[in-house]
């Protein structure tokens, strides 16, 4: 068992934050509506590629599925499988998640199961291996691809296109990252991050990605874009020759529709949960503003203190990103799987992301430590509480923000302020959303 290193006086709620009162607001983002018929959208996207002219009956097609919490991923992958089967092809699922899942076959299959992707739900086998094949060398570093992928007749790259958590460029997280990091398994992800540390992420991702396209059997890419409500709003397919330009275009759209906090500065940000299913960094730095040293202060909001209360169930104990928090709870630390977290952190050359911040016995003590570390009276403290960095349709804000609402057409008060309260164990009640908001 872990023990608390710092003991603070036991206090009741009134002594804790007597003036910290939180209101509930709804954020309205100007974004496209979700796609209603996803199978039809997949079919329409793939139709111009004329798959029957690219893929012959009986040929195998490896479909990449990563570890991210992509909305509707099981439905989308099933639709891709149906389209491929209609050509007479023999598709199978290929876990493409770098070092995630503890860099083990069982771990990566377990991640897919949590996403609803199993042989039973997909109607095709899952072929997982940590073995890789070297397909080239770039800037003095090897480029690898999953061994089953290299042996398949074709590879279908299914990826969400979104801003990256560690760098900025015209290609960030999408087709290229899935090919280079996802398909590269642990060995390929390690090579990419080491090359990036020397030459820069954008340059390396472009060169590694182009090498993968040139030296492998990529059939097509299927790009998925989500809006600020974590809903699927765009599905677009691209041939290998057009994947780079398509990714650039979809990334621009994704950035314009991305989620964000309601205000650009906060004294305290309370995050109920972090996890790899939420973001590669556990908490998306595009939301929290907590990027690495190279981007620190350049993007995102300015947040003085971040509090993390828990880990998601689907992160399987991978607590990468907890090092970006300033305070956390004992239960979050006890749920941390050091093996999974450290493998991920070391592969990404990000040991700081796995550091454990000061932690306390319950939410009350943790929030108290954050509030008391700010030299601002509670009644003027700017605090925001969110479920996670993917769920921002509804958030809680302290009273200090309320005067700013009158000039905002995108924010609506849904619950009057009330004092932050805790249960008998000193924990906050779960963050509950109204139907259809923030989910």
Number of structural units classed as domains: 2
The named CATH superfamily of the largest domain? LarA, N-terminal domain
Tell me, briefly, the overall form: globular
Side by side, the strands of the main sheet go 12-11-10-9-13-14-1-15
Q: Structural class, judged by helices and strands?
A: alpha/beta
What's the total number of strands? 15
Rg, rounded, reads 22 Å
CATH topology label of the largest domain: Rossmann fold
Second rung of CATH, namely the architecture of the largest domain: 3-Layer(aba) Sandwich
Biggest β-sheet, characterized?
8 strands, mixed
What is the CATH class of the largest domain? Alpha Beta
Task: Give a description of the structure.
- It is a single chain.
- The chain has 439 residues and is α/β, with parallel strands linked by helices.
- The protein folds into 2 domains: 13-29 and 259-419, no CATH class; 38-256, Rossmann fold, CATH 3.40.50.
- Helices cover 29% and strands 21% of the residues.
- It is built from 14 helices and 15 strands.
- The chain has helices spanning 13-16, 38-46, 73-86, 105-114, 119-122, 147-151, 175-182, 185-199, 201-215, 243-256, 285-288, 330-335, 338-347, 363-372, and strands at residues 21-27, 60-65, 90-95, 132-138, 141-146, 154-160, 218-226, 232-238, 265-271, 302-308, 327-329, 359-360, 383-386, 394-398, 411-419.
- The strands form 3 sheets. The chain has an 8-stranded mixed sheet with strand order 12-11-10-9-13-14-1-15. It has a 5-stranded mixed sheet with strand order 3-2-6-7-8, with helices on both faces.
- The two termini are 34 Å apart.
